[in-house]
Amino acid sequence: MSNKSLIYIAGPTAVGKTKISIELAKKFNTEIISCDSRQFYKELKIGTAPPTQEELREVKHHFIQNKSIKEIYTVGDFEKEAINKINALFNNYETLIMVGGSGLYADAIMFGLDKFPKIPKEIRNQVNLFYKTHGLKALQELLLEKDPKYYTRIDKNNHVRLIRAIEVCISSGKPYSSFIGKIKSNRKFISKMAIIELPREKLYEQINKRVDLMVNVGLEKEVKNLFNYRNYPALNTVGYKELFPFFEGKTKFEDAISEIKKNTRRYAKRQITWLKKYENALYFKNSTPITEIYNLLVK
What we know:
Layout: E1 5-10, H1 17-28, E2 32-34, H2 53-58, E3 61-62, H3 75-89, E4 95-99, H4 103-110, H5 121-134, H6 136-146, H7 148-151, H8 159-172, E5 190-197, H9 200-216, H10 219-225, H11 244-247, H12 253-275, E6 282-285, H13 290-297
Parallel strand pairs: 1-4, 1-5, 2-3, 2-4, 5-6
């Protein structure tokens, strides 16, 4: 077995993962891999709550604001780039820290991606036209019909994920869920996971405070500057998509901010549900002393 360890610091948004990962990286004298799929984008400086410049100076981070929203950057692209970077870093370190709330991206690094059939262009066009013509609810109903098992797991408000699953169902004639967990990549390291927890009421309080802080430091201006790019996939993101209707004159600013808070809380709930599938993870309160976390992870 490899003696190299990748320690994944997981948990819902606003739970305090960034601070804990930096303190742990200092303890291990190592570097940090970010697997937050929205913190990749350099234009999204406020609404994605990336580490501050001060935090980035404390410990070297990788995959923070290294892409543009104008680029197409898939989870498969990330897997290739990140594994190459991780393997290179393991020439200098015994342990690396990975942190981020994007569960699919973390799984891609720890376990590899599932292999799906190639989607013919005509099917892709057909499903996209169906979405444009019939809307989100019709997409949800279509996936429920074709793959009720995956329907219970998917974020039903994420039209991109719905479309992807339906494309696979149609092109293969099999449920999307039948391709999950079949083929995994061999890794040259072992993965350990620390899930950070906070009582639900306290977590929601932290989320609301963080959104207010984002507003105070210029979220409105940031989103306004990105208005012309609002249809780009990277901007189908909580904190941005709720403010675009405000700039279109369709909603009040206060209502848009309330919607950001509500959608962030919903996102946190989905993250908590996703994390329940990991059987060998260690759980810590966000107030657990770093030394205690370190001692359990170093074993």
